[in-house]
Design brief:
Layout: E1 8-20, E2 26-30, E3 33-48, E4 54-70, H1 75-82, E5 87-88, E6 95-104, E7 110-112, E8 123-127, E9 133-139, E10 147-151, E11 154-156, E12 166-175, E13 179-180, E14 191-202, E15 205-221, E16 235-241, E17 254-256
Length: 257
């Protein structure tokens, strides 16, 4: 018996996958899509008679834009939006990362940093009771009442700093355990193939779940987005479906189930 689906009830979006148009490699894959919408539009031109009365309306220049949010922040999605590539650090390709350390001044005035700094920090701070910066101490060749010194990872605190004082230091170090996404002013998103998997069922048979696929053969992610940096924030994204110009049907998107 032939499969024929008309009235489709949507359960949820399962995932969305973007593929490179160059080699079909995966650019990003997200499975927390919400608030998805598809906007289809076109331009119209009216043919009128000598009195300006419309005779016929012709449509052209179809456009299609898809927008949604991922419930979780996704670095691969962001790098694709920015037109760059996520960098994963390794032993042979390290990333320069910042380190911020709050610590309690120990007895003896020696504190060992958690990492080896790329460049020795030039200053450290005593923290106020509300954790804001207080007295600043600068680096010198040897510790004094108002200066500190550093050798490799070990800081010799100023002699004027009492044990138990809350301190703060910030520096940069090289790590092989980090990822990095850069927003470069000269890079922009390129075209990709986007496939979204939607789970649902026939309105007359809710026991048989069906997977439907929304396919954009030539989609361009927008580099414009507002990211709410909060626990309940989401990762928004949008893309324009562009016609596959070498396709005789000039398809913008395809729906199959």
């Amino acid at each position: 018996m032939a499969f024929d689906l008309n009235n489709f009830v949507i359960d949820r979006i399962v995932r969305g996958v973007a593929l490179s148009q160059k080699d079909d490699s995966v650019l990003f894959s997200i499975n927390q899509i919400q608030n998805a919408s598809l906007n289809c539009a076109s331009e119209s031109t009216d043919a009128v008679d000598a009195m300006g009365t419309p005779i016929a309306t012709f449509y052209r220049a179809k456009s299609c834009e898809f927008s949604a949010e991922n419930a979780l922040f996704d670095l691969n999605l962001m790098s694709t939006q920015l037109g760059t590539t996520k960098k994963v650090a390794s032993a042979t390709s390290k990333i320069l990362a910042p380190a911020m350390e709050s610590f309690t001044a120990p007895e003896g005035g020696k504190y060992e940093l958690k990492h080896s700094p790329k460049v020795a920090p030039a200053e450290i701070y005593a923290l106020n009771a509300d954790s804001t910066f207080g007295v600043k101490y600068v680096k010198a060749t040897s510790a004094s009442a108002t200066e500190f010194s550093i050798a490799d990872k070990t800081i010799s605190l100023p002699t004027g700093v009492a044990a138990g004082t809350e301190m703060f230091v910030m520096y940069e170090y090289e790590t092989d355990s980090a990822v990095e996404v850069v927003n470069s002013a000269k890079n922009f998103p390129v075209g990709c193939k986007f496939i979204m998997e939607v789970l649902g069922c026939d309105v007359c048979d809710q026991t048989n779940l069906v997977y439907a696929y929304v396919i954009f053969n030539n989609a361009k992610l927008s580099p414009d987005f507002d990211w709410s940096i909060a626990t309940d924030g989401t990762h928004p994204f949008s893309m324009k479906a562009q016609q596959d110009y070498c396709d005789k049907e000039k398809r913008l998107e395809l729906l199959c189930a």
